[in-house]
Amino acid sequence: MLFGKEHVDRYQETDGREGHDWQGTTVLLLTTTGRKSGLERTTPLIYRTDGDAFAIVASNGGAHDHPLWYKNLLAQPEVGVQVEGDRFRARARTASPEEKARLWPSLTATWSAYDQYQTKTDREIPVVILDRAA
Fold first, then answer.
1. What distance lies between CA 110 and its chain's CA centroid?
2. Sorting pLDDT into bands at 50, 70 and 90, what band is 2?
3. Cβ burial 25-60 (10 Å sphere, 16+ → b, else e)
4. According to the model, what pLDDT value does residue 4 have?
5. Quick one: average pLDDT of 93-100?
6. What gap in Å lies between CA 41 and CA 54, rounded to an integer?
7. Which of 16, 66, 67, 99 to pair with 126, CA 20 to 30 A apart?
8. CA distance 15 to 11
9. Residues whose CB falls within 8 Å of the CB of residue 125, separated by 6 or more in sequence, listed in order
10. pTM metric for this prediction
């Protein structure tokens, strides 16, 4: 299965029965609002839980610029999240250095390429916390 539009479509159509489990890890769908277009965009992202919250990585494959979804949530932190059949609103925030240090080992355990991505770029790859809205 592709990791893009086809992935998002299958995930949404099957409530995550197809697409949640992916290449030995787990994936959620993040919907952000375009900071320039105002259009909603949905991206499949690897995640780990952190208590009641979810942690994702803005790696962009180690590119020198942040992924567009991260730039969008910086401008508008209210986001949509889907984890399997559970769809909810959340508030996104960049993890503090202490939170990142605590979460990074768990995130790299589920996707070891994150460590490689960090070595490919001078930018600090952010970890994002998604807190479910009340």
1. 13
2. low
3. ebbbbbbbbeeeeeeeebbbbbbbebeebbbbbbbb
4. 80
5. 98
6. 19
7. 16
8. 6
9. 57, 58, 59, 60, 62, 114, 117, 118
10. 0.94
CB 131 within 8 A of CB 93: yes
Which one, of 2, 126, 118, 133, lies nearest residue 55 by Cα? Answer: 126
User: How far is residue 124's CA from residue 44's CA, in Å, rounded to a whole number?
Assistant: 21
pLDDT tens readout for residues 104-120:
999 999 999 999 999 99
Q: Which SS3 state, helix, strand or coil, does residue 7 take?
A: helix
**How many whole angstroms separate alpha carbon 58 and alpha carbon 45?**
9
Give exposure, 84-105, as e/b (b: 16+ Cβ within 10 Å). beeeeebebbbbeeebbeebbe
d(CA 115, CA 93): 21
Mean pLDDT over 65-78 rounds to: 97
Outline where DSSP puts E strands in the chain.
21-22, 25-33, 40-46, 48-50, 53-57, 78-83, 86-94, 127-132
CATH number for the domain whose boundaries are 5-132: 2.30.110.10
Q: Residue 107 is which amino acid?
A: L
